Amino acid sequence: MSTSDPAGGGPPVAAVPGTAVPRGPAPGDRPVRRRLLALHGFGPYAAGQALRLLGRHDDLALDSWCRAKIAQQTGRRRAPADRAIERAYACFGEHRGLVLWMDLTREWHGEGALTPRDAVVTALGGRLRRAKPSR
Description:
Elements: E1 2-3, E2 13-14, H1 29-38, H2 44-53, H3 64-74, H4 82-89, H5 96-104, H6 116-123
Antiparallel strand pairs: 1-2
Helix pairs in contact: 1-2, 5-6
């Protein structure tokens, strides 16, 4: 099932059956994530990646490759706990999953490429704002 981009002019957006899927980050990602997880073959990583494809960048979508890459990039034998990773990226608010993905794939972008965070800011037209820490 697909639905047209609600902003108009864009390509169709794949929709989870029974769920309206607007483009861009939205505070209501949890219901969509739950629907994705209910689908056969969707685990937490696949659901997180599907959310990214839908323009929702909140989910970190951590899997064994992500954890191994984080360990490698930080010079550790083992990756930090998921909670520590979540805390490290929490300051990026609704874009934390996108910033994490850019960090993990930084060597794919070639010499002279923007730093991952700068690339995200550029791609978002400078709209990336750090979230206020929750207390």
